[in-house]
User: Fold these one by one.
Assistant:
Number 1:
Amino acid sequence: MSLPALQEETGPDLSIAPRVLMVDDDSNIVGIVSDVLRDAGHDVLTASNGAQALQLLQQDPAIDVLFSDVVMPGMSGVELAQKALELRPALRVLLASGYSEGWLDNVPPGIDFVAKPYRAMQILELLRARSGPPVR
């Protein structure tokens, strides 16, 4: 009798999981969300402000997604998104904020937005959605 071989259970397929740069000035949020993203198979880099994020984007061409808070000291997430897209036009950008009024007026088209408080699963779902219109 011949039985089919069992497929070995493997971890997440890292070849398809986008590499994420997460930017937030709240270290608690960064810690929790980046742990969830890593557990789901994403390679996650973190920055606490826009200047650090831009430096990482210049140094690492493998970053696929910029996930940033909107309201941060120094450079806002919207400003960061604009500068990041000037550097890397194909970069996917996801912004998060609890304050959407006024801040999102200058958001470039094609950027996804999630309102705080969000569930980490929302972020995973957005990262998995590789096609379709941006979520607003």
Number 2:
Amino acid sequence: MQFLPTPLSGAFTIELEKRGDDRGFFARYFCEDEFAQAGLETRFKQINTSLSARAGTLRGMHYQLPPSAEVKVVRCIRGSLWDVIVDLRPQSPSFGKWFGAELNAENRTMMYVPRGFAHGFITLSDDAEALYLVSDTYDPKSERGMRYDDPWHGIVWPREPVEVSDKDRNWPLFDKDFHGIDLIGKAFA
């Protein structure tokens, strides 16, 4: 695996190193030793999947507060999506900044989302399916979200969404108290 730093502190895209022949190829999706050598999370409690039927479906921007804050490793296994993260750690040099990358079934690129980041994506194809390694269990009491179109982070999406859940459409605009930024900051100080 190749761990490629993004402009956001602690976040990476991960490219598979394929070993192949005329039959196809083999590659590791996860290797505890390689993740540990890169200083990344090595313990995952869940593997989740989501399927979005229509191109232009937007999911996000989601995260959990400590002690349930999650690391995610996201890969698109069918179709194509544009994955985006926002750094919510106030002490980070990249606080409030965002980064996006296309993940698709052909490039097999993955996004490593550290604790203290909001995460979301918009599908670029019909029937886009994402697979997530997640380091903590879903906790509805710790769940938070922020609007995908919030001017605070200013994400420039590659297309207009055609489907957004009521929940995602109605997250409040950025608010330090609601979003638990102080809790995130204390947990990662």
Number 3:
Amino acid sequence: MSASIINGKELAHDIRQNMKEEVSQLIINEGVTPHLTVIIVGDNPASKSYVRGKQKASNETGISSDVIEFPSSITEEKLLQVIQELNKDPKVHGILVQLPLPDHIREEHVIVTIDPAKDVDGFHPMNIGRMMTGEDTFFPCTPYGIITMLKSKNIRIEGKHAVIIGRSNIVGKPVGQLLLNENATVTYCHSRTEKLMDHTTRADIIIAAIGQPNVITMDYLKQGAIVIDVGINRLQDGSLTGDVDFDNVKQKASYLTPVPKGVGPMTITMLLKNTIKAAKGLSKQ
């Protein structure tokens, strides 16, 4: 029996349709149009592609957005100054600095400079702390999207054993915390983990966030496991693939996300959701 596919593109479309109405009501009732400002530094093609996707999705839902581009030679001091100016701008509800940044700019300094009330990426230490203690906050977008995908299929998380393969600050660590907040039992695995299969073959839910194409096969999971593929890897022929060998794993998994049309569209959708939430919060201050 083949796995049921969790199509992130379709789910994202449905959520964004509801967002359109939410934004419309916010404009009519509060006179507030949610606004997202994205800062991009340098000429990374992947980053520029992501930013275009975010801007397109914003426009489709009625959220206004703009992109501020800087050359990779910009100083850290100048970048932080721009962020501080955006913090003070009442028309800007969400601020996102596209990562990665040039080596001479410290990501942690940039992230901590963003006003936590405008941190729609969910990476500010204050928002991470709130997530860790189970408080309502801006959740990191990819992990937030993963939880939303699981819930969209009424997949029970409470009491289940979730194995996270990858420990990045962007995906691995926060998705594990969000699963823990949903009362899952969580195991983190990474590049130093010995006997990886011993962990994954006992998992009810596997989150693959390794950044290596097609490495997770059916041998890594038990029958009926739920597999969420976070990987986006470009092959030599230009096609995209995930960390999971899709055609192989779908024969054994109960639910599986594709790449593309899986987690990616949900990441952008959760960014928009956070931006609307920021606009609502700031409009009440």
Number 4:
Amino acid sequence: MTVIVRDLRTDVRADIEGFARVRRLALPFLLVSPESVVHHVARSHPDAHFRSLVAELDGEVIGTAQVSLAHQSPEPGQGSLNVYVHPERTRHGAGSLLVRTAEEHLAAHGATKLFSWVLDGPANRAFAERHGYRASRSAHFLRLDLAHGTLPPLQDPQPGVELRTAADYADDPRPMFALDAETTSDEPSDIDTEFTDYEAWIEETWKHPLLDLSLTSVVVVDGRPAAFSVAYTDGTRYSTAMTGTARAFRGRGLAKLAKNASLHRARAAGYTEAFTGNDTGNGPMLAINKWLGYDICATEVRHARQVG
């Protein structure tokens, strides 16, 4: 029984479903579907040199890795590799082989610093340290019981403030791009991100198969999108992919308004559980999620390693 690592075959259904299954088992609080797996391969920018890798044992996909260069960062030479192995198929060497293959790919394309998210458990952290990675920042996964929990009452928008959805921008999403670019650049992260390529954003973000335009809330102030809460759904579960407010409108409770409205609509649509994630240093967003009733369900730690 020999483990092999290779590229994901997006034209083979068993490959795609195996990749999605491993990700769901390893990270049950993140939404993933066969369609979203294919999307990342097909729509990622060429400068990202993106690869989806699988580790196969006796014909079964037991491990996965998503590998890319941070091409939207102003600092060159940064890469990321996120490796996950089927929880019942560990100790076959799949993780180490995926890491080695990913590192070789990134180094070949000029990466000098690598980042990887690792679940905050003794075995996972020890694995990262054995491969030369050192802990950096951390983030929480949070869960909300929409079926039995109590959401805060819906708030009436302030004068001059209007609640819309992303579906209202389906014909011209450029205002959504501008808001996403500004809020993403201010997110706490080891890797700074600058969205400057509108067409690439359309392909990667706006056309994402899990993006739910009707459940994505947009707060408009004097005709300008000022805050939003981006909703992903997979048919049974709901997740917030991003919540943010433009700098000029912060401190007015607009992110609360956006996210609460989205959650109320999600519950009305029949979704029974919601997930989100926060950097542990993002106090304002953690406070909003606590107000909404979210509980921490897992923590991951970003690890980094210099190469080359």
